[in-house]
Specification:
By secondary structure, this protein is α/β, with parallel strands linked by helices. α4 (68-78) packs across α5 (87-101). The radius of gyration is 19 Å and the shape is globular. The chain contains ten helices and six strands. It binds SN-glycerol-3-phosphate and magnesium ion. Residues 28-31, 40, 64-65, 129-131, 193, 196 line the site of SN-glycerol-3-phosphate (G3P). It is an enzyme of class 3 (hydrolase). It comes from Urochloa decumbens. GO terms for molecular function: metal ion binding; sn-glycerol 3-phosphatase activity.
Length: 245
Amino acid sequence: MASAGVDEAAAAAAAAQPRAAISHVIFDMDGLLLDTEGFYTEVQEKILARYGKVFDWSLKAKMMGKKAAESARIFVDECGLDGLLTPEQFLEERESMLQALFPSCTKLPGVLRLIHHLHANGIPMAVATGSHKRHFALKTQNHQEMFSLMHHVVMGDDPEVKAGKPSPDIFLAAMRRFEGNVEPSKCLVFEDAPSGVAAAKNAGMSAVMVPDPRLDVSYHKGADQVICSLLDFKPSEWGLPPFNE
Ligand SMILES: O=P(O)(O)OC[C@H](O)CO
Ligand SMILES: [Mg+2]
């Protein structure tokens, strides 16, 4: 019979085993690096209120992370607005409101600490966002330094991204653009959206989810790890260099 000391040592050794041997990191942007999801919610609530309807988090869960056209189709279909509003009209209506809001977006907690840490330790990083080029420029105009630490950025309107999340296209494109021959199993994706977590898993990568607390826990399934904030992320659990704190 093993002594308590031996059992404890075995448990400690198992706990010290990383979940994966990660060499490359891919960040989602909206709702993960930048606090922009609230802007989409605010604008969509306003549009829906005109039709006497309420925007809720089950609809939000379906739309977030998707390319604009895909998310607009979901909005019209799920809200029963066929014949009243086309996806194109929805995108047009929300555009000026979003354009006014995006430049004021802020970074989410823990973002800078983690990105500076990974950069200082030579871990290659990329961004894979469903956001298209024009919106990306508005959102990132006050965050240039952070994005300059990324090896590259892949956006939703990139020709290699045939389908939006949950298709693995965007994460596989991001992986291929790193130097060398990188395997999906070596890539760790950070995501806030259920469709983004599914896309990462469909790409064969590991996924850490940092969901909005209003998202029902049923949407957490599929993620390899769920944390409340990037401040709670422990790099050593993923074979990455630990914080020196
Ligand atoms: O979460 P992201 O960065 O993929 O962006 C997707 C949309 O632009 C917003 O949900
Ligand atoms: Mg996101």
